[in-house]
Q: What sequence folds into this?
């Protein structure tokens, strides 16, 4: 096997191993898990209002936290189980694998990332945020208090990172997913509907790489006439 082939094979295994090691440890709070599972149970029906609205008598921050955990887990599944690891070998050059005309940067000293590297860093970062009990407190304890800036400072940034990962999926990996594209579309529809309903959608500049998909989902969302629950007002 040539050195290039060995490097490519090692690269593919590296990304796969990182995802498997993280697993789904964020679903550690029973109440959050129960709320999140309820969402996906309803999602298969035509009544998406029930899938994205905060249930009566539930705390809004807790509902948003539950779904944030769930979105991270679903994206991890897509990344780790629905994409052939060998597909990463197409994107070995710095700056490769990103949507056309876009390069996502993490910090000034990591400007030369590939798209697979960015996805890994983003998912690990989101995982760390969700595992930080100063941000996502243990709901089994009494008098749980979320940070005052929980949504504006933390959740919105998490949603921006996850949206970028979805952009990379659609631009660079959709053709590798086969029948799993249906699952990608379902996950993204749920993500966009939830973000629209709860004011978590990134700004217009972030939406540009997959603007046509987002515009269509926005139109679908508007036709659903999703009304706010009492907890949403």
A:
């Amino acid at each position: 096997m040539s050195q290039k082939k060995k490097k490519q094979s090692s690269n593919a295994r590296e990304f796969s191993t990182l995802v498997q090691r993280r697993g789904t440890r964020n679903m550690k709070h029973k109440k959050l898990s129960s709320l999140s599972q309820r969402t996906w149970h309803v999602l298969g029906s035509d009544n998406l209002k029930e899938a994205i609205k905060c249930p009566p008598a539930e705390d809004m921050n807790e509902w948003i936290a539950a779904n944030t955990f769930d979105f991270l887990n679903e994206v991890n599944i897509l990344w780790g189980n629905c994409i052939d690891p060998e597909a990463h070998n197409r994107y070995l050059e710095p700056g490769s694998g990103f949507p056309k005309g876009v390069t996502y940067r993490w910090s000034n000293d990591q400007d030369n990332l590939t798209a697979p590297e960015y996805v890994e860093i983003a998912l690990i970062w989101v995982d760390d945020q969700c595992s930080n009990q100063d941000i996502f407190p243990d709901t089994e304890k009494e008098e749980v208090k979320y940070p005052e800036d929980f949504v504006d400072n933390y959740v919105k940034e998490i949603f921006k990172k996850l949206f970028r990962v979805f952009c990379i999926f659609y631009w660079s990996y959709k053709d590798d997913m086969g029948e799993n594209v249906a699952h990608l579309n379902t996950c993204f529809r749920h993500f966009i509907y939830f973000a629209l309903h709860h004011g978590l959608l990134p700004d217009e500049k972030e939406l540009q790489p997959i603007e046509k998909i987002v515009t269509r989902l926005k139109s679908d969302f508007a036709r659903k006439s999703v009304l706010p629950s009492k907890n949403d007002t």
Observations:
- The chain has one domain: 3-232.
- The two ends are 62 Å apart (CA to CA).
- Residues 155 and 200 are 8 Å apart (CA to CA).
- The chain has nine helices and no strands.
